[in-house]
Amino acid sequence: GQQVMQIPQYQHVQEGEDFTTYCNSSTTLSNIQWYKQRPGGHPVFLIQLVKSGEVKKQKRLTFQFGEAKKNSSLHITATQTTDVGTYFCAGPWRGSTLGRLYFGRGTQLTVWP
Amino acid sequence: NAGVTQTPKFQVLKTGQSMTLQCAQDMNHEYMSWYRQDPGMGLRLIHYSVGAGITDQGEVPNGYNVSRSTTEDFPLRLLSAAPSQTSVYFCASSRGGGTEAFFGQGTRLTVV
Fold first, then answer.
1. Are strands A101-103 and A85-92 parallel, antiparallel or unpaired?
2. Residue A14: DSSP 8-state
3. What is the pLDDT of residues A39-92, one digit of tens each?
């Protein structure tokens, strides 16, 4: 069954509005990674968070890792049309010797001008 | 530096045919994986490998075989194609388990 949940599945915003996607794991993660996939493209790594409660920023993007290392969020301030795509979270379970990544199903962001 | 290279980019198969999707990486990564992506289903792991000679099943392995004879190559074999295998396939590599994954451009497969 689904181990990493992501909501919402779809989000449509007008350019300039904010956007947030949430990621929840059934198991404590060693780290959380975020990927972006443009329409017709392949997933591209954005960032990795490792520490409990960690917050990182990349320009208009803010990433958080929860205190329990089971949830995470990605917030985009003032969306632009270039933000269009699907955002995936992924992480390996804490204690996993193989470090297999478990992906959420992604949030598909549409931005209209 | 090419990264992860997948071939072919597009393929149409008839039901029952077999084929191999190629994946090669030039980053000397130990960890390689195959995913399939279907609408609304995200990325589902088919098989993965933690090093040459070592492979294991992911969540949707049925109908697919893999082998890892070298660090660079990780081919995915469809034994007898079925319409349910129509999907976009991505190969990924990473330095180790749980680290940043680099994805190939994908192979769009249609089985008719």
1. antiparallel
2. E
3. 999 999 999 999 999 999 999 999 999 999 999 999 999 999 999 999 999 998
Instruction: Say which DSSP state B69 is in.
Output: S
The residues on B that touch A, with CB distances below 8 Å, are 31, 33, 35, 40-43, 45, 48, 50, 56, 58, 90, 92, 96-106
Q: Would you say how long chain A is, in residues?
A: 113
Check residue A63 and give left, alpha or beta (phi > 0: left; psi -120 to 50: alpha): beta
The amino acid that residue A96 corresponds to is S
- Residues B47 and B58 sit within 8 Å (Cβ to Cβ): yes
Q: How far is B65 from chain A (nearest CA, A)?
A: 18
Q: What is the pLDDT of residue B44?
A: 93
Residues of A whose CB is below 8 A from B33: 101
According to DSSP, residue A95 is labeled T
Cα–Cα distance for residue pair A3/B14, rounded to 1 Å: 34
